[in-house]
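Preliminary data (for renewal application), magnesium ion complex.
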Amino acid sequence: MSASEPLVLGIETSCDETGVGIVRGTDLLANEIASSVAEHARFGGVVPEVASRAHLEAIGPALQRACVTAGITLTDVDAVAVTAGPGLVGALIVGVATAKALAVGLGVPVYGVNHLASHVVVDELQHGPLPDPTIGLLVSGGHSSLLLVSDDAQVIQPLGQTLDDAAGEAFDKVARLLDLPFPGGPWIDRTAVDGDPQAIAFPRGLMNPGDRDRHPYDFSFSGLKTAVSRWLAARAAAGEDIPIADVAASFQEAVVDVLTAKAVGAARDLGVGHIVLGGGVAANSRLRALAQSRCEAAGITLRVPRPALCTDNGVMVAALGSRLARAGVASSPLEFPTTSSMAVTQRVW
Ligand SMILES: Nc1ncnc2c1ncn2[C@@H]1O[C@H](COP(=O)(O)OP(=O)(O)OP(=O)(O)O)[C@@H](O)[C@H]1O
Ligand SMILES: [Mg+2]
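Predicted structure:
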């Protein structure tokens, strides 16, 4: 680590995680997270107003803990980065207002950054600068996209995306069908360990030849969710037990089969030698394993951040802010807005 690299503090409050991260260059110094997920669990989904209030309570202590962990004081900070979108507007406002107040108080620049781009760039903290170009597979609670990431991760070009549910949303909905707790993705992952992924042949969205020609890099998961629901209903109607582990494993296999086939297909078609995974679903153990074996077979290098960097956190925001600061990109004007629905291509103002 070079002391000449900027010390960047990142703030993430787009959904239910209050994250504060600190980096110098690409070195991770602190990654503090306070989650309000337990407060949402009984509603089966994130309640925006509950999330906003929880951010207000958590942001101050998280900032203090991050400074202690990193061994710095706020006056050492050279730049602040914050998620400006996409996300829940009330939740975003807490982070953005905090970041602007810090920037003004400390007399440092502020970068309003795109949460989706930071899910992709966070891998730099673990594996160094992203090769140019890299295929990004962004799979999270609200998004599922294949991306072409180039120009030092500053240009992100969408190749394809989900036409309906996001991968994480499909995990959460199917988990609910199986009476597993919210958020369901990690529960399906754990439950599937004891199941047979070949037990039930669930459909692979947009993988048959006609669909594949029209949507080579797009995804669709709502048909899969319906197929699981119908399969469970038929089983219940017949008075038979539900083999939860087999359903979880077979559903999970259908999702990760499509994700990895399309990511590797895009890399092959475009002649790109690297794939990076990002977003909460990238924490999935089967996705990581299948992506690894398919990339190896295709001679592609796979980069996957450790699970704690895949789900929402503040250090991914700091990582993107650090990249922008090091590249000499102009910081955001102080009046930059929160943008609850922000395309992956939109990054600073
Ligand atoms: N091990 C896992 N297996 C499958 N899904 C997982 C796993 N861990 C987390 N997820 C899923 O990841 C999603 C949360 O990811 P993330 O925090 O990136 O989403 P988000 O921030 O809510 O959405 P977005 O980034 O699109 O705004 C949830 O749907 C959750 O179920
Ligand atoms: Mg996210």
